[in-house]
Write a structure and sequence with these properties.
Order of helices and strands: HEHHHEHH
Distance between the termini: 17 Å
Number of domains: 1
Shape: globular
Strand order of the largest sheet: 1-2
Strand content: under 5%
Helix content: over 70%
Radius of gyration: 15 Å
Number of helices: 6
Number of strands: 2
Largest sheet: 2 strands, antiparallel
Length: 125
């Protein structure tokens, strides 16, 4: 449970960084960032997995470009749903989704002592 909370807080920080770096992405306040990070994560976990599996052969054929478009679509949909989280157009959605992905990978994939996603710690328990 602690890992999920830490993951969520780091995702909020990454989302605020994306909003600060990209002029087309805007987060009004911290509460909007909390909600947006949760919605982006839920959409990616639920709908994103289904879209990626449905387009499996297509995504292999275009070298992952389709996966970036799926992430950008989910990022854009979350901006349409969350008040206080906006973006201008689809180009900021693509760049923002890729930047958010890179920041999340950099921050959330560091080996932690009790990281449930780390395969080595899962094998030891």
């Amino acid at each position: 449970m602690v890992y999920l909370i830490v993951n969520w807080v780091l995702s909020v920080i990454c989302l605020l960084a994306v909003a600060g770096l990209l002029p087309g992405v805007r987060v009004l306040d911290f509460q909007s960032a909390l909600t947006a990070a949760g919605v982006v994560g839920l959409l990616s976990a639920l709908l994103g997995v289904m879209l990626r599996h449905a387009a499996g052969p297509l995504s292999l054929g275009v070298s992952g470009f389709f996966l970036a478009v799926v992430d950008a679509f989910l990022f854009r949909v979350s901006a349409l749903v969350i008040p206080g989280f906006t973006m201008r157009g689809f180009a900021p959605a693509i760049i923002g989704a890729l930047t958010l992905l890179a920041l999340n990978l950099a921050l959330l994939r560091w080996p932690l002592k009790d990281n449930p996603l780390d395969s080595e710690s899962a094998l030891q328990s």
